[in-house]
């Protein structure tokens, strides 16, 4: 039977791992991910979750152990944050290049120095080119649902790529929210046991990840890119299929709110998307035709959806919780790249907000929207990138 | 005791591999497969052994291989072992097969972690005393005085005692071996297979390319290493230290050849002075004094 639990996103992640019946977990603690691995330890030791739990001595080893386990044919799980994630960097490439379906919740925390345990997307966005699929969640329900969906997606033969399920530190990780957990039979039906077509098998030996010369290397990378393109098709389908029994859909690649008639669209990710909805409702009361599009999947990047959004909007205000130093916000950058050469070129302004855990509320977003609509009416963006609430 | 005649004729290191002529690690691989057959999953980090089987779409390893990042052998093997347990597969041996660089240096953390977690696998360090893959740079296993491309005037520091570092992990089985003594080599690997927990085997694998000796002399070089006492064949089984033949007959210093005989055959030691050679001899003798005490304590 479906049940509603009220818990933190981190614990919800642990319950999702259990519901997905993961077989091997390898993880190393780091704030703010710790309560995921602690709860999983309890689930494994109590026998509620029949899995091997490898308490590795580093995150690099966590990812290496997941690679070994996935290659040996089982459903594999890890979770990390910030410094743990970037320590894995080398192994992230190895996982995707080996086409292994590993699911990893990333509790988004910024990177030091100085030490800062609070939310922004610096950690996962700096890993965007590792060949991992990346989801960004807006609430605890989406965290649960996306974790389950991630396994369905990554184990599909057309995909076979690892997946990060990103959720912001504390804003989600340590915040209690009600989450509806579907009946286990429904989840099992949706996500049957992992049956890999190939794995390390003494009866059918092969070498995984051996030397590949320039003669063949490009083809492997082409196939990886193809899998990313396939994911664009599959993610919305899986979201719908899951929604049928769970009652929740999360918008596929991009969740849209009041965008149909909007002149101004706020484009953002994660919990800023939730705050933006409140801002949009308030601004609509003031007569502003504004909507919000929350990019749920950053890799593969939903280029086509962004183009569709741009067709009728006069302006996009892109709010980024992270910056590619020397350029601009990640989402702003990719949005612009997606729209190059398109017939309709809305105005675009980029806003950097909430770095290192600074609050971004609906009020902050309201201000951003008002500034944007001024520029929209004037037909000109005064500042390409605005740092929001910056101390002078 | 294993006899050569009783060994399987089956080869799992296939023809066409691209190791250098006289490669000690390649001989060791062949012996490994002779010892274990093909119910083996190999985890191989970046090292000469990731090159030896040749490039995609071919391989000369006839067992499943997870090629892996340089520093991650211990951790990767942990994952494979866990997966096999989940799949209830009991008759497959997981072997980490790593070079000295991947063991003494960059991979020591993952190895230490795997050992501390009592991971049920065999970790084999084939030691050619340098980073062979990248063209012979020093490692923590390079001996004092040896030329490498990053120690052009000879290494100034001694080699780590990795077997005893692993002994400090209190794992159930540690052994040293050398492909010049194939029976001892195979017996140790077979024994390791029967023991539950982390097993560590340290193999001296002479490398003509890095050590600068004639490619026909690999077996001889291993024998000389043992006869001079530079390399010692021993086991530490559940904490119990035991010398193995022929090392067990060499406790008396007079029975050991002078280390000079071993050193002067290799171009990498060309720059050693008499003082350096004496120093090395003294260290070897000190090691043996330790071995003697350990052996007589048991
Ligand atoms: C993180 C990382 N650093 C450096 C390298 C380059 N590298 C590949 S193999 C190797 C040396 C391997 O030496 P060893 O472990 O002794 O094995 P051998 O090549 O001698 O068989 C190095 C430095 C690498 N692959 N990965
Ligand atoms: Mg080496």
Descriptive report:
The complex is a heterodimer of chains A (392) and B (298). Chain A has 13 helices and 16 strands. By secondary structure, chain A is of the alpha/beta class. The radius of gyration of chain A is 21 Å and the shape is globular. The model of chain A has no long low-confidence stretch (mean pLDDT 98). Chain B contains 11 helices and 8 strands. An 8-stranded mixed sheet of chain B has the order 2-1-3-4-6-5-7-8, with helices on both faces. In chain B, α3 packs parallel to α5. Chain B is globular, with a radius of gyration of 18 Å. The two termini of chain B are 23 Å apart. The mean pLDDT of chain B is 97. The chains are: A alpha/beta (392), B alpha/beta (298). Chain A binds chain B through residues 23-24, 26, 51-52, 54-58, 60-62, 64-74, 76, 90-91, 94, 200-202, 204-213, 216, and chain B through 38-41, 43, 50-51, 53-57, 59, 61-69, 71-72, 74-80, 82-87, 92, 109-110, 112-113, 116-117. β9 (207-208) of chain A pairs parallel with β2 (65-68) of chain B, so a sheet runs across the interface. The site of magnesium ion (MG) has 8 residues of chain B, from loops. Magnesium ion (MG) binds at residues 99-101, 128, 130-132, 139 of chain B.
Quick recap of the structure?
Chain A is α/β, with parallel strands linked by helices and 392 residues long. Chain A is 41% helix and 18% strand.
What CATH architecture label of chain B applies?
3-Layer(aba) Sandwich
Q: Strand arrangement, largest sheet of chain B? A: 2-1-3-4-6-5-7-8
Shape of chain A: globular
Which structural class do the helices and strands of chain B define?
Answer: alpha/beta
- Mean pLDDT over the full residue set of chain A: 98
Largest interface: A-B, 42 and 44 residues
Domain count of chain A: the total is: 2
Please estimate the helix content of chain A.
40-55%
Average of pLDDT of chain B? 97
Distance between the termini of chain B: 23 Å
**Low-pLDDT sequence parts of chain B:** none
CATH fourth-tier homologous superfamily of the largest domain in chain A: Thiamin diphosphate (ThDP)-binding fold, Pyr/PP domains
The percent range for helix content of chain B is: 25-40%
